[in-house]
Inverse folding.
């Protein structure tokens, strides 16, 4: 379960270009729930994900994961509980290391690292099996350096790395946005399979309205650093892309009127 | 013909001495490689950590300490110096190179303070090289055996470490710090520990050097960095850097080959003052080669380092 309680973050405080990124944002995501976050650029989506992962320190407010307050925890401590797939395929993997070494790093995310040999035969066999589920042939390239893989392969690897070990919270940060439509589809299908099989509590940021309609239990629309709209249950099942876009244009009209 | 014969004769006669020297300086090359390649942290501390190790070892030996503890204390001093450089970079967000320059400048004064003068003779004190059995102390053979043995042990230990779970995590910090952090790795700890380890190796090289040459000098670090870098480039050109064993072997192979090359140049009559220019041009050529080769092709592969 994820809870964000009145999170507030202001950039460049007291300066001419002061910007309120998160404005008393409240959000609650139940265990096993799949939330899809939409919103225009600058709405605070990235700030929210960064605040959850620990990359952004809040001015005020709290973040709780499964009831534990993680607000003061640095990124590497929170990593024990949550996993994240970035938009940029380069960001989620170590390029100069092999596929197997990347898998090892992910496996050790929630565990204590020892002075024992990292890549043992048992682990290599397990990685082979898990990668074969993707159907991209990565299982035969365990000793290939990640920099030699394509963007889609790297992002698929990032996904497998993130969902391995069943994190308490999975953060997907527009993770298919940088991929071509076909690869994006493969990665998205793999995501849904993993999330459903492992019943992961998931928060996905996307600009793709079709994805927001097709996937997830709840759509969360952010605007100006707070939750403007939440659609769940039967309403979520019935919603269409034009409906969602309608919510965007209402907001845009208001912005025009305000200015 | 006469010239060639003379050159070869003097080069060959110098081979054992040079080999002993290069095996000692291989530790400095190792101390340059670890931050540069494993942590993407170009570290200049070794220019100060090498004489630091020498000065600490020299003072302790002059005070009558036995040679092995003297090396261990020097190693510890180098470790602290490396940790300081990494801390300056992480805490104050100062560029890695500037942090190194600051540290090595400050170390010069510290080294002078430690010795109390610029030069200290420890000639006649027992050294680790005297412990080699069956060989006459003071000759290159004993130095080659001892320095080579220590080098081999260090190589084996590092090879094991960088393949363990902790070692893989340290390499991840160099490959992609943001990703490493997101995978639960403490980037500060790995960086400080790794650069500290490198400082420890540089200082060990300095301590061994003092025991080998019989005196410590505050200026003994002058230019060691560029020599070490040149040695590393040669080593990587010979054994490559595509895997952990190769990357770890590169400093040792590079040091051995580089110092023989230098010795050959000197034997061939190259004036010693020109040596630094030649070394600098060589390192420049090695670093520039990838971008020259691919100037017409796709984007050149530049060295990616932390800033």
């Amino acid at each position: 379960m994820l809870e964000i309680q009145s999170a507030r973050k202001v950039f460049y405080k007291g300066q001419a270009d002061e910007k309120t990124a998160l404005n008393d944002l409240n959000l609650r995501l139940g265990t096993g729930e799949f939330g899809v976050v939409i919103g225009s650029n600058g709405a605070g989506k990235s700030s929210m994900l960064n605040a959850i992962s620990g990359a952004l320190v809040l001015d005020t407010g709290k973040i709780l994961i499964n009831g534990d307050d993680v607000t003061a925890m640095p990124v590497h401590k929170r990593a024990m509980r949550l996993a994240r797939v970035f938009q940029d395929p380069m960001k989620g993997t170590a390029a100069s290391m092999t596929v197997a070494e990347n898998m090892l790093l992910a496996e050790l995310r929630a565990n204590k690292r020892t002075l024992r040999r990292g890549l043992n035969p048992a682990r290599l066999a397990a990685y082979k099996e898990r990668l074969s589920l993707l159907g991209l042939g990565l299982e035969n390239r365990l000793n290939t350096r990640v920099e030699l893989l394509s963007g889609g392969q790297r992002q698929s690897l990032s996904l497998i790395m993130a969902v391995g070990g069943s994190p308490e919270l999975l953060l997907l940060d527009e993770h298919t946005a940088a991929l071509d439509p076909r690869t994006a589809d493969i990665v998205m299908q793999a995501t849904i399979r993993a999330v459903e099989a492992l019943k992961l509590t998931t928060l996905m940021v996307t600009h793709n309205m079709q994805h927001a309609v097709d996937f997830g239990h709840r759509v969360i629309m952010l605007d100006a650093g707070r939750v403007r709209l939440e659609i769940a249950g039967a309403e979520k099942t019935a919603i269409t892309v034009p409906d969602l876009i309608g919510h965007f244009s209402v907001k845009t009209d208001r912005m025009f009127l305000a200015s | 013909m006469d010239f060639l014969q003379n050159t070869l004769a003097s080069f060959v006669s110098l081979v054992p001495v040079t080999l002993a020297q290069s095996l000692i300086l291989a530790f400095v090359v190792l101390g340059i490689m670890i931050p540069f390649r494993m942590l993407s942290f170009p570290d200049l501390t070794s220019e100060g950590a090498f004489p630091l190790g020498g000065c600490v070892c020299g003072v302790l030996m002059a005070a009558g300490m036995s040679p092995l503890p003297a090396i261990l204390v020097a190693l510890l001093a180098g470790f602290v110096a490396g940790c300081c450089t990494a801390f300056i970079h992480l805490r104050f967000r100062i560029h890695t190179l500037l942090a190194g320059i600051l540290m090595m400048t400050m170390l010069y004064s510290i080294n002078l303070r430690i010795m109390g003068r610029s030069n200290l003779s420890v000639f006649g004190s027992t050294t680790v090289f005297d412990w080699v059995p069956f060989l006459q102390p003071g000759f290159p053979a004993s130095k080659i055996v001892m320095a080579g043995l220590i080098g081999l042990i260090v190589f084996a230990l590092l090879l094991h470490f960088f393949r363990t779970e902790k070692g893989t995590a340290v390499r991840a910090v160099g490959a992609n710090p943001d990703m490493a952090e997101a995978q639960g790795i403490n980037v500060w700890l790995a960086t400080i520990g790794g650069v500290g380890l490198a400082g420890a190796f540089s200082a060990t090289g300095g301590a061994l050097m003092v025991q080998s040459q019989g005196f410590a000098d505050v200026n003994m670090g002058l230019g060691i960095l560029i020599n070490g870098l040149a040695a590393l480039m040669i080593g990587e050109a010979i054994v490559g850097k595509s895997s952990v064993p190769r990357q770890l072997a590169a400093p040792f192979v590079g040091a051995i080959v580089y110092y023989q090359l230098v010795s050959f140049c000197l034997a061939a009559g190259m004036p010693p003052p020109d040596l630094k220019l030649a070394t600098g041009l060589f390192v420049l050529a090695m670093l520039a080669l990838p971008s020259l080769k691919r100037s017409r092709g796709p984007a050149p592969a530049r060295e990616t380092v932390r800033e």
Remarks:
- Strands of chain A lie at 2-11, 19-29, 34-38, 60-65, 68-69, 82-85, 169-173, 202-205, 218-223, 226-232.
